[in-house]
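User: Sequence for Pyridoxal phosphate phosphatase PHOSPHO2-like below. Tokens please.
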Amino acid sequence: MAAPTTGRLLLVFDFDHSLIDENSDTYICKLAPGGTLPDEIKELYKEDGWTEYMAEIFKFLHSNGCTKETLFSCLSEIPLTEGMKELLSYTKATENCDHIIISDANSVFIEHILKHHDIFNVIDQVFTNPAQFNQDDCLELQPYHFQDWCTLSTKNLCKGHILKTFLTDQTDRGVFYRHIIYVGDGHNDLCPGLVLRPEDIFMPRLGFTLIKLIEKIRKKNKPVKLSELQASIVPWQTGLDILAHIKALE
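Assistant: Structure tokens for Pyridoxal phosphate phosphatase PHOSPHO2-like:
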């Protein structure tokens, strides 16, 4: 992470459908027998219980012969979103940008995919649900935290809280950001968008849930008031769009 300084950029990424061009959790479900999950597993899903649901999927896959190696091989198929390699290459080279991931995926998936695409050392910090393989090589998943204060977030991960805490810690270390750029696509990316300041940039991906949610806010002031979104809103489709906007800030 950066030495104490001012005037840096902070680039914050969601992971699934943002940094990578798939949902890593649902992608590995094709490893189930017949390529699809049985109904009794699908019925375990609850809207606010994704972590528990994925933990059951990992148990099911393991019980049906899915090895650690098979899981990693499947994850290696997932591409980065177009232009992300170029974006990260540029921002890393500037030596004036910190990079973090805040994701409701899990630590094992994210670490493997970052290393596979040779960008692990670009990312300064990852905030996600911790995971590890047990002695039987079954992937076990834990919630990042348990929260009951944010209705915009799942109970296991409030991205806004994580971002606020990170920024407070950075301020305590003497690190201040000229601009924060938040790159996301999903419903749970709205909460961290509310943390952003007028000088920051909130980047929802075109065609996904977050940008549709922002349009709803513009029309109906729900689920939050439009005035609560202080940052500039800049839609994106590829990493090259993000790169172009960063260059325009220079």
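The mean pLDDT is 94.
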